[in-house]
């Protein structure tokens, strides 16, 4: 899937948006995801999320919401910052208002993007996107190791000992959850392997 394919899928979720506005927005979005410091949070990540979303049996409205969340959720990303999710949500809200998207749909997209900060929610559609976003944790060993390397590259400015402290904190937080994946489909597909991957990385970081 190329950037043009992502654009085609994403732009099709709008009925009242102007072509020039969609093009302008996607150009900016693409520029953000294509920055040289984006080793994991890039267009390939968005492609993976959209591919998963399209494989689900969703209503047209829910599909459109999650496609937009996928496109916008990491548009603002600076490694180590705690406001990436809020800024990405605000970026999305500003553009969605120009696209004449319904208030309810826009608010849901905004709320789901913000929830990626804690990766916790009681709303099913939000839970579904969070599971999709975290699915890398339950990938096979080769893909997971590639993900680890990419995340470290995005935090290259952080000294190794400090990075290990922060990364170990994240791993322990995820492992302390009663479940990592909330929806039945993703729990069955990824929970066991995700816990194995996280535990193995934690052991490696502790050496």
Provide a compact summary of the structure.
With 207 residues, the protein is mainly alpha-helical.
Give a topology summary:
Layout: H1 3-11, H2 19-33, H3 43-54, H4 60-72, H5 84-98, H6 103-115, H7 124-134, H8 141-154, H9 160-176, H10 184-205
Give structural notes.
- The chain has 207 residues and is an all-alpha fold.
- It has one domain (3-205): Catalytic domain of cyclic nucleotide phosphodiesterase 4b2b (Orthogonal Bundle), CATH 1.10.1300.10.
- The protein is 68% helix and 0% strand.
- It is built from 10 helices and no strands.
- The protein has helices spanning 3-11, 19-33, 43-54, 60-72, 84-98, 103-115, 124-134, 141-154, 160-176, 184-205.
- The model has no long low-confidence stretch (mean pLDDT 96).
Q: What is the strand tally?
A: 0
Beta content comes to under 5%
Radius of gyration: 17 Å
Tally of discrete structural domains: 1
For the residues shown, what is the average pLDDT?
Answer: 96
Oligomerization status of the protein chains? single chain
How many helical elements?
A: 10
CATH homologous superfamily designation: 3'5'-cyclic nucleotide phosphodiesterase, catalytic domain
Instruction: Provide the CATH top-level class.
Output: Mainly Alpha
Q: H/E element string?
A: HHHHHHHHHH
Which fold name is given in CATH as the topology?
Catalytic domain of cyclic nucleotide phosphodiesterase 4b2b
Distance between the termini: 39 Å
Task: Give keywords.
207 residues; mainly alpha; Catalytic domain of cyclic nucleotide phosphodiesterase 4b2b; 68% helix
């Amino acid at each position: 899937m190329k950037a043009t394919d992502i654009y085609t899928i994403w732009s099709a979720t709008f009925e009242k948006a102007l072509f020039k506005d969609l093009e302008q927005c996607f150009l900016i979005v693409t520029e953000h995801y294509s920055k040289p410091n984006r080793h994991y949070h890039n267009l390939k990540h968005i492609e993976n999320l959209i591919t998963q979303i399209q494989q689900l049996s969703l209503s047209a409205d829910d599909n459109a919401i999650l496609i937009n969340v996928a496109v916008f959720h990491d548009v603002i990303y600076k490694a180590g910052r705690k406001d990436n999710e809020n800024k990405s949500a605000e970026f999305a809200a500003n553009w969605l208002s120009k696209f004449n998207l319904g208030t309810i749909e826009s608010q849901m997209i905004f709320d789901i993007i913000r929830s990626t900060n804690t990766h916790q929610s009681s709303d099913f559609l939000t839970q579904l996107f969070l599971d999709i976003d975290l699915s890398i944790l339950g990938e096979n060993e080769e893909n997971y190791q590639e993900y680890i390397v990419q995340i470290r590259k995005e935090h290259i400015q952080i000294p190794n000992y400090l990075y290990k402290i922060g990364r170990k904190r994240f791993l322990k937080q995820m492992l302390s959850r009663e479940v990592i994946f909330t929806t039945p489909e993703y729990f069955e597909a990824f929970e066991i392997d995700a816990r194995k991957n996280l535990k193995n990385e934690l052991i490696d970081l502790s050496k």
